[in-house]
Amino acid sequence: MKNKLDAILEGLNDEQRTAVEAIEGPVLIVAGAGSGKTRVLTSRVAYLLGSGVDPKRVLALTFTKKAAEEMKERIALMVGRRDATKVVMGTFHAVFVRFLREYAQELDFPNNFSISDTSDSLSSIRTCIKELGLDEKKYKPKEVLSRISAAKNNLVTADRYALRPELVDNDIRQGKGSIKDIYLRYQSKMKMENKMDFDDILLNMNILFRDCPQALEALRDRFSYIMVDEYQDTNFAQYCIILKLSQLHHNICVVGDDSQSIYAFRGARVQNILNFKKDFPESRIIRLERNYRSTQVIVNAANSLIEHNSSRIPKNCYSCAEPGEKIRLIRCDSEADEAARIASDIYGRVNRGQSQYSDFAVLYRTNAQSRAIEEALRRRNIPYQIYSGNSFFERAEIKDMMAYFKLALNPNDDESFRRVVNRPARGIGDTTMAALGNAAQAHNCTLFRAVGLDNLEDYQIKPAAQEKLRRFVQMLEVWGSKLDRTEAYELAVEIAEDSTMLAFLKMDTSQEGKDRLRNVEELLDSVSTYVEERKMEAEQNGELGIEVGEGELGLAYYMENVALLSNVDTQEGDTENSVSLMTVHTAKGLEYPRVFIAGMENNLFPSLSMMSSSNDLEEERRLFYVALTRAKTAVCLSYCDSRMRNGKIESNDLSLFVKEIDPSYILDPLPLSPHFGSYGRSSEARVVHSPAPQKALQDPPKDFVPQDMSVFRQGQRIEHNRFGFGRIISLSGVIPELRAIVDFELYGTKTLLLKYAKMRIAKES
Fold first, then answer.
1. Is 229 in the active site?
2. Which of 409, 515, 520, 627 is at a distance of 20 to 30 A from 12, taking alpha carbons?
3. Which residues, at least 6 apart from 163, have a Cβ–Cβ distance to it below 8 Å?
4. Taking the mean position of all CA atoms in its chain, how far away is CA 527?
5. Is residue 290 annotated as a catalytic residue, yes or no?
6. Catalytic annotation present for 37
7. Would the CA dihedral through 548, 550, 553, 558 be positive or negative?
8. What Rg value do the Cα atoms of the chain yield, rounded?
9. CB burial of residue 742 (10 Å; 0-12, 13-18, 19+)
10. Could you tell me which of 624, 596, 598 has the C-alpha nearest to residue 610?
């Protein structure tokens, strides 16, 4: 055994080794960016198993399926696949949904309840708003669902929401007093359709523990050791579950980095990791401070930034890599100029053979910033991919096919029923469906059950339409009857054929049609791959029919597997050598050799909405910390003198976060006009700024009428609508990309893109 444990510990640094060996009692592992967190987690599980712990008594919770699978693979290499696969490891939702199926009767749910993904939930919310006669422009489905999600994450059920005056009064003040009614109707609809959404899984686990002490006791006794990854991202509902499961043995190890807690908008509470010592006074805190990813400059710069947060666990991250390049800071005229500089830099480095396109990531605070960057990359013929959270499973034809799969498993799923009842066309139009909806509402039943009512004529549904609806329902019933005796792939193919989806797609011979058909074929291939992987896993365990029985080879388990995927899990892989574009939130957990962070201006990063409170500002600072620490070798920050936002040109200060970085880590910082703070262009893109007194921008004269850019010449005295009077020093470029360097009397020298600048020729003074 000693040799096996020594092999597991081999190659770990002292702090990592301490974290792996600390298997008894509560442990908080504070893992700085790039500190080898995944290796420590997997080594720790392997160390438990190597020490003789039954793998079935180890519970490991992650935030993505990808992370769980990667960890299992690594553990299998250390202790063997049979033990590795027996560890109860997966995402919070994937693990807890299995527990809920086990105790579903205690919650008055069937154990084959469906899981509603975000798009399904939005559709249900939209239906509830319509049924309540509310204005969808006022009650925006995404906003309503977000509020309901927040309530569930804080363990506020629909009936209790309506009884909480502070919640209802807040809704009323915002002109949305009916959210409580939407919440009640939504939950009633979910229950009637035998469905839970992602938030319900966490809420119902807490309800189960509250109302069924024997379930809590049984699950608590099942596990001797609990590990939680990314603990800083847990919300209140997850926190409560973890606390209850670990209440007796206290063998809980949580791993995370408070400096990377950036999901408060999803309900994550940084307090969970900050208060771990209060929850478990006897706990050990182990810090992983060596960064294996980034250069010394990047790590030290990130340290100097995050030190400005008051709510944090003290740690001093360091790198043993080379010092590396200093951070470049580029001042640009506009978002178009910013995008062009980024594209030019990437193109030049690749053209000189210094890098390949996949070495680069461009990060930004908001999705809207990608437009200008995309245009600039396309002009240079630079390949790129956008990581936006939209996945293969969001494509229309895939959602159609998945809706059929859902109906085979749960014909009471109203949203799926509506989606495909007439797709491909079966002569069941909107009028018929509206009438069927009225019948279902009157009888308080689902659309599927409403088809069987004997008084549909009372709702103006003609006999011919009734027959078409019954044929559709009979098709669903045939599929449902085969669930227990047919493997997932075989049934999936049958559904694709019987529904006529395959035949319908084959009729469209356009390129778009061929792409849609290939996508559906790829979906069927994924079902086949799922079945073969389950069989292979069972064969390797030597336990076919025990560990992996017919149930896990069926369509229900495949659908559960897909429903519980996160955006990170469903992100399509890098199929070519291309630049990666994404928001900073999306970038968490990723790394690239060279990273651009665009839009480093106050009101953009930090966001204007996050500058009103110290807690929000600290969250934004953590977000910038995450952005910096994605880079291995180089970071370039860019900001603009002016930027088009919401149809208006804005001018904002250089981001206060950039000013918080120790200037010794910035390449050649130069003083600028006071309007832009203390940092300037790098030596690669230097502009001399004439000194000018600080003054607020003036309001445009009421009679101001700008002139066309074609009238301007070098040496002219001009008037700008905001900067006032100045003289054109030089003109460059061609219309419509004409630029002017103007020396303003009050604001110094500025470079303006004339298609955005509002100027007119002025009289000589």
1. yes
2. 627
3. none
4. 25
5. no
6. yes
7. negative
8. 30
9. buried
10. 624
